[in-house]
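Structure ticket #2291
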Amino acid sequence: MSHKVLLVEDDRAIATVITEALRDEGFDITACTSIAKRDELLGAGSYAVMLTDIMLEDGDGLDGIASVREAAPDMPVIVLSAQNTLDTAVRASDSDAFEYFPKPFDLDELTRAVRQAVARSPQTGTTSAAEDGSELPLIGRSRAMQDVYRMITRVLRNDLTVLVTGESGTGKELVAEAIHQLGSRRTGPFVAVNMAAIPHELLESELFGHEKGAFTGAHSQAIGKFEQANGGTLFLDEIGDMPAEAQTRLLRALQSGRIRRVGGRQEIAVNVRIVAATNRDLSPMIADGRFREDLYYRLNVVPIHLPPLRERREDIGALTRHFLAQAKDEGLPQHTASEDAIAALSAHDWRGNVRELRNVVFRLALMSRDEVIDAGLVEELLPRRPQSDEAASSNPIETALDAWLAVARPAPGSLYHEALEVFEKPLIEHALRETEGNQLRAARLLGINRNTLRKKLGELDIRPEAFAQRR
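Resolution: structure written out below.
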């Protein structure tokens, strides 16, 4: 017996592709393009699963989904959308969707999800994850961010521990805030603690609190971050910087759900959701004993990786507009960015990721005298893009310098003079080679006076004629 699938999609090309793919899997497909026809079909018969786009020809495909649930409570719903924002992913989750697929999607993944939806019992019960109009903290419609959104929506209705990884400045704390604000614990506290910012000897007291007299300076009882976050979410940032002894106590707290203040005897039950984050690769730290393997597995229940900004350049325009609006809210002049300016920003490597972009956009808003920020100002304010590794390795001077630095052990305060002694002659020879022995051009290339160059040629016994007509 083939299972009946209702497809609600107003893009004919996409509808055709999905229909053919699911028919090849043995499903009986009925397709329509509107909410009105959807409701008519659901009123006339039953379906094993429904796939629906959000933007349909007569409205929002999620509108009226509650009445669909009432009419067909056992039917899983798979949501498709080209409106690829965190808001869309959350709305799909709020509708109790079995799965959410941003467009373009992998057809094999979609067909697999349909098979799973038919085979499994439907997920029931939903609570609103966010109030209408609430500001969602993450921005971007790139494919990489769609994966992040999908993982976030999967942990909103449970308390599974999450480990967020990614380079500095990618927005790991924003992921933690989104999980808290949109999830069932949003009415509780959100408490963040940065492991790297707290002296190691104070970290246990910061996390678990202390009793009066527990150590020198403990003049009164203090509750720690675990107790402060009770009923809510505790965000442990830079978890890779946690010292070994504190790791042991954290593991015990996660396993038992109970903590003990420093200097205390009583165990205290705490009910917190843990979201941890790190910009480090924990695997080598586990291998050399700097991070507990059992703690890693306790934290890495649901991994979410945030991509660096250079891997989602298509989001830079939206992020720039968002930061310009933020700049205006903070009292800076109102600006827009030209397409050329966005292109110039998108060409930058952004080693500081989204945090660096925000700072640059604020600087642009401060410095621009025109309402529209142009590419010229962007290029003026942005530091020069560093050479790629390949380009750097092809430069003989830089290659030689790297090699020398790898083995050199100059005395303190002598690095400049020792490096100059080693590299001055090959540097001048490189300039002469590039200019075919022309001393005037070589001096200009080096940025020194021609007379200075002549003096150096004599001191270093360099014959410029040896480089004539050579490249």
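Closing remark: The first strand starts at residue 4 and ends at 8.
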